[in-house]
Amino acid sequence: MNVKTASVCPVSSQVNGVKAVNGVNGEVKDCPAKGGLFREWRRPDLPSKCTYQPGAPLEKSPHLHVKPQDRLKIMPNILHNIGNSPLVRLNRIPQHDGLKCEFLVKCEFFNAGGSVKDRIGLRMIEDAEARGNIKPGDVLIEPTSGNTGIGIALASAVKGYRCIIVMPEKMSMEKVDVLRALGAEIVRTPTSASFDSPESHIGVAKRLMEEIPNSHILDQYRNPSNPIAHFDQTAEEILDACDGKIDMLIASAGTGGTIAGLSRKIKMKCPNCKIVGVDPYGSILAQPEAMNKSEVSFYEVEGIGYDFVPTVLSRDLIDKWYKSSDRESFLMARRLIREEGLLCGGSSGSAMYCAVQAAKDAGLKKGQRVVVILPDSIRNYMSKFLSDDWMSQRDFLELEQQLEPSKEWWWNLNVSALKLLAPLTVMPSVSIQDTLDLLNKEGFDQVPVVDETG
C-alpha cells in the first residue's frame, strides 16, 4: 500500500514529532524530566482540530493518505478483500415507490468482515504501524457496537495482535460469536450507561488500557484514519463507478466517519451533490438540534446513532438530516432482502428508507442519481429483525404480516381436530429434585405447578 508521510495533524498520534508508544490517539506530551511520555485520555466528543480544508491539495494534508488499491487475482491474505465493494442498481423498490431517479447501493457487506467498518479497522491499524505506534504482540482495545470490533479483530488475527473488544449488551450475539471466532476477547457493558460513564463501553476500554501493558485504543471516535479511509478509498470507488456523476448520497451515521470522509471527497469532485445523513430516533447526531427531541430513549437498530457527537463527525459537511425509526428501518431492510436480493442489515434499511424520502422531497427526476451506503450484512441479525417472532413482539409487523393464514396448515381446522398432548404439570407436593428429573426426562425447561383445582 502506497503511504504518503506528512506533517502532523493535531488529532493524530504524534505531537511535536514524538510518537506515542502506549496508545494511538491519547494526548501525548514530551516530558523531558521523566525521559519519556505520558498520556491523558481525551473525550470522544471534543471538536475536531484538523487543519485540512476541503479542496486543498493533498500535499498540504497533515494526514497519511493511500491510493485506492486494484483488485488482485490472487490475494496474499484476506485483508486485501477489504474495499472495492460493488455498486448495485436497485430496480423493484424505486419502481414500487414511484421514483424515476436512479438508485445505486454501495454493498459494504462484501468486505472481508462483512461491513463498512472493515475499512477503518484495517486503516487505523496500518496507519498506527506506519507511525511506529504499535507492533505485533501489542494489545488492541476498542469500544464498539460490534462491526468496528470485527474489522479490528480480523486484522489482528492476520497481523498477530491480541484484541479486546468492549461492547454494549444491546448488540447481537451473532456479533459476539464472530468476534470470539476471530480470537477477540469480549467485555460487555450496560446499554443504559452514558458515553462518559465509567461503566460505558468507552469508560471500560479506557480503564483496561490503563491496566494492561502495551495496550492501545485505536479510538474510532477521534481517529482521523476513520474518515480518511473513506476519503481516500470509498469515495474514490463511488466516483470512479459513477464517472463523477452523483446527485445525492445518503449514509447513516454512527461515529460519522463514513459520511464525513465521503462528503469531503465527493464535494470536491461533485460540489452540487447533496449529502444526506440518517440518524435514529433516540440519538442526538442530527441537525438542527430540534430534530433530536423525542420520547424515544432506546432503539433496536445497531451501529448508528449516539448520545454524543463524535470528534470525527463534521456535521457541517452534511446538507440535510433525516431521522429513522426501528420499524421503518427493519421493514425496509426486509424489502431490500426480499425485493432486491441484498442480504443487508438493519441500518441499511434506515439509510434506504430515508433515501426514498429524501429523493421524493428533493423531487429527483429521471436521469438523476442517488447513492446509498448499505453498511453491513444479514449475518449479524439472524435472531433479530429476520425473525417474525422478534418483529411481532415489538409490534414492527403489520397484523396481516403476522397472521398470513395461508401459510399455516391448521388455520381452518377445529381445535378438536388437533391431536394435542396433555400439558406437562406438577403438583405442589412434588419435590424440586423430582421436578428437575421430570424436566430432563421430557426435554422441557419449564413446567406449570397446579393443585387439585387446576
Automatic annotation (TrEMBL):
Domain Tryptophan synthase beta chain-like PALP intervals? 79-376
| Molecular function via GO | cystathionine beta-synthase activity
Pathway membership, UniProt = Amino-acid biosynthesis; L-cysteine biosynthesis; L-cysteine from L-homocysteine and L-serine: step 1/2
Q: List GO BP terms, alphabetically.
A: cysteine biosynthetic process from serine; cysteine biosynthetic process via cystathionine
Q: Which GO terms describe its cellular component?
A: cytoplasm
Instruction: Write down the Pfam families for this protein, in alphabetical order.
Output: PALP (PF00291)
UniProt entry keywords in alphabetical sequence = Amino-acid biosynthesis, CBS domain, Cysteine biosynthesis, Lyase, Pyridoxal phosphate
EC number assigned by the record: 4.2.1.22
Enumerate the catalysed reactions.
Answer: L-homocysteine + L-serine = L,L-cystathionine + H2O
Q: Which cofactor does it need?
A: pyridoxal 5'-phosphate
The answer to keyword ATP-binding applying to this record is no
Q: Family per UniProt?
A: Belongs to the cysteine synthase/cystathionine beta-synthase family.
Q: What is this protein called?
A: Cystathionine beta-synthase
State the organism named in the record: Plakobranchus ocellatus
